[in-house]
Amino acid sequence: MDKFINLIKLSVGSESVDSLEEWQKTKQAQADDGLPRHVTRMWPKREPEILQGGSIFWVIKGSVQCRQRIIRLDEVIGTDGIRRCAIVLDPTVVRTQTALRRPFQGWRYLQPADSPADLATSRSSEERLPTDLANALAEIGVI
Fold first, then answer.
1. Contact 108/56 with Cβ under 8 angstroms?
2. Separation CA 63–CA 98 (nearest Å)
3. How far apart are CA 59 and CA 55, in angstroms?
4. Mean pLDDT by 10 residues, the chain (143 residues)
């Protein structure tokens, strides 16, 4: 039995995994220590399980395409005085098998058994399929 849980989140504004990686290199997307982060309104109630090895799986253009290991959760107080959660991430983006997802708001918990598998490292240098084609293949169960 897995002792950790993952999160799944839409990467709003990302056109591709590459554009997500570029955004995360900007100062606006980084914690004080330079690690990429994602700030969200809600604090996960299952924090201990997330920090036992969980990742955030990114939905880009209607499909899960990659994940990042969650390192820690930081408190962030906005200029409006509201407490938020910064999900601090490992900068390594791991590409995953394509898995279709309908749009949703916020983040959701994702059991390890339901999480798309990582692509083999031997495939990481392959040219990427266009998102529409990858989604169509995932829809019919080919990838």
1. no
2. 6
3. 13
4. 90 95 94 95 96 98 96 95 96 96 93 95 62 62 57
Q: What is the pTM of this model?
A: 0.83
Separation of alpha carbons 85 and 122, rounded Å: 35
Classify residue 66 as exposed, middle or buried by CB count within 10 Å of its CB (0-12, 13-18, 19+): buried
Q: What string of H, E and C letters represents the secondary structure of the chain? A: CCCCCEEEEECCCCCCHHHHHHHHCCHHHECCCCCEEEEECCCCCCHHHHCCCCEEEEEECCEEEEEEEEEEEEEEECCCCCEEEEEEECCCCEEEEEEECCCCCCEEEECHHHCCCECCHHHCCCCCCCHHHHHHHHHCCCC
